[in-house]
Amino acid sequence: MGILNINHDSFSGDGRVDQAWAVEKARELVRLGADIIDVGGESARTNREAITPEEELERIAPFIRDFGEVSREVAPRDDEQVFPPLLSLNTWRSEVAGPALELGGDILNDMSGLPDDRNAALCARYGAALLIMHTMGEPKVSHKHIQYRDVIAEMGEFFEDRIARAVRAGVSRDAILLDPGIDFAKQVPDNLRVYREAAFLGRFGRPVLLPVSRKSVIGKVLGITNPPERDAGTAACVVAGMRRGAGLFRIHNVDMAYRVITTVRQICEGAA
Questions:
Q1: HEC string of 146-195?
Q2: What CATH number should be reported for the domain holding residue 92?
Q3: Can you give the pLDDT at residue 164?
Q4: Which of 81, 157, 230, 237 can pair with 212 through a Cys bridge, CB separation 3.0 to 4.6 Å?
Q5: Structural domain count of the chain
Q6: What is the pLDDT of residues 9-34, one digit of tens each?
Q7: Residue 186 pLDDT
């Protein structure tokens, strides 16, 4: 999953509000091997004020309309790449998700933790898959105070509840993906434990996405404050995630991830 930030304040410093740039950036991500493009109009950073739903939709709607242009004049990097690529809409506001899904989109990447059934109902209405992320509290608010009795056990209870909520809202269980929410309402020890024990998510029988790219926990471990310099740590997290059953990785540096995944698979599975 290649990251496309149509905003000015991404933590990784790689976003722009420029439609022509966005289409070309997405095309480059696909050329490098991305199966999914995850487009977002607002940074999840808690030290930035939220923009309005109208502004968020204004940023991403033109890209959604032009998404068919992304795969033109681009060939798949290998025979296993999903092509044409899928489009993931990264938003938590139902007032943005509804119009965005009406324009198009294969996945709703909901980082709100599904506090109610509105976004699930929208996915059911438009036939989109739903990516449920574990978190606590509202988006765009710092949750550094949150402490867990047992982060793995509580995450398990969370996903049991949210999967049931989504299914009740009309989403097929087969259309649900899970994200443990690295760096969201978690401290460094919590994040490291989730990485170590990510295999437990396999009990739900749904694809698991690890948002490993350039995360703050990597910066803490390596003592690196500049996110683009965290790609070696990102690569290590991809390998660890693969060994624990994760099948999707949300990535800034798609070329690096492609090379890592291809190499690990050749070593471990004998797959080209």
A1: CCCCCHHHHHHHHHHHHHHHHHHCCCCHHHEEEECCCCCCCCHHHHHHHH
A2: 3.20.20.20
A3: 98
A4: 237
A5: 1
A6: 555 556 777 899 999 999 999 999 99
A7: 93
67 secondary structure, DSSP code: G
Which residue positions in the chain have pLDDT lower than 70? 9-14, 44-48, 139-144, 270-272
Q: What gap in Å lies between CA 155 and CA 142, rounded to an integer?
A: 19
Residue 94 and residue 121: Cα distance in Å, rounded? Answer: 10
Q: Is 244 a catalytic residue?
A: no
103: its two tokens: 């324009």
Say if CB 85 and CB 38 are below 8 A apart.
Answer: no
Question: Which conformational region is residue 214 in: left (phi greater than 0), alpha (psi within -120 to 50 degrees), or beta?
Answer: left
- Of 25, 215, 230, 244, which one is the catalytic site residue? 215
| Rg (the chain; Cα; Å) | 17
Upper half-sphere CA count for residue 230 (Cβ side, 13 Å): 24
Give residue 249's pLDDT: 98
DSSP H helices, the chain, are: 19-31, 53-65, 94-103, 118-126, 151-168, 188-196, 216-222, 231-243, 254-268
Task: Determine the Cα–Cα distance for residues 179 and 132; give it in Å rounded to an integer.
Answer: 6
User: Would you state the structure tokens that stand for residue 75, as one six-digit string?
Assistant: 């060939």
**CB-hemisphere CA count at 13 Å for 232?**
7
Q: One of 27, 77, 162, 250 is an active-site residue; which one?
A: 250
Encoded tokens for 267: 């070593």
**Containing domain of residue 159, as a range?**
2-268
193 flagged as catalytic: no
Around Cβ 4, how many Cβ atoms within 10 Å? Answer: 29
